[in-house]
Amino acid sequence: MRALDETDLHILELLAEDARRPFSDISAEVGLSAPAVSDRIDRLSEEGIIRRFTVDLDQSTLSGGTPVLVRLTVRPEFVDEVRDALRAADPVQHLFVAADGEVTAHARLDGGSVRAQLDELVDLSRVRDYEVSLVESAEWTPTVNGTGFALECAECGNTVTSEGESARIGGSLYHFCCSSCLGRFEDRYDRLEAGANDD
């Protein structure tokens, strides 16, 4: 696996500002040809660094619910389940999971009972407590910080350098700082998959 260089980071910054920016504009900014920029963007996508190109809508200009911030204190064994349910829910715009397992979602809910709407989004029996706040304004500014931007090992959390490895496991691309972490991750994945198939 090749480490990200300054050109990769600059391309990511430009795409974060405007994902529809033409390759010719990016090439003029970074000093590469448009085909070379295209190749780099393809590589960044293949490595899972760029997951998708999307549209950033100003929801305040559109109708469709009241913006709220929902903080859920989730039972530890259900954090992944609650996260996945909220990730798939149409009203949820941004989702955060804290190290302590608290799940926070920025969503747009329609009028009516908040509890009933939350219960449609996620099984509230998995939740110890929740708090809902009205959002006055929200901004989302993705940035790429050249000094702090690095891939994180899926196994141990260390920074992935040029000696790292990448592997597609269960349909997802993961990055690892070393072959030992890759091996441990694959072993655990295989055990979990075998246990799921036994049920």
TrEMBL record:
InterPro entries xrefs: ArsR-like_HTH, AsnC-type_HTH_dom, HTH-Siroheme_Decarb, HTH_ArsR_DNA-bd_dom, TRASH_dom, TRASH_HVO_1752, Tscrpt_reg_AsnC-like, Tscrpt_reg_HTH_AsnC-type_CS
Annotated GO MF terms: DNA-binding transcription factor activity; sequence-specific DNA binding
PROSITE patterns reported in the protein's UniProt record: HTH_ASNC_1, HTH_ASNC_2
CDD domains according to UniProt: HTH_ARSR
Domain HTH asnC-type: 4-67
Organism of provenance: Haloferax massiliensis
Keywords attached to this entry: DNA-binding, Transcription, Transcription regulation
Name the record gives this protein: HTH-type transcriptional regulator LrpC
Pfam families per UniProt: HTH_AsnC-type (PF13404), TRASH_HVO_1752_C (PF24273)
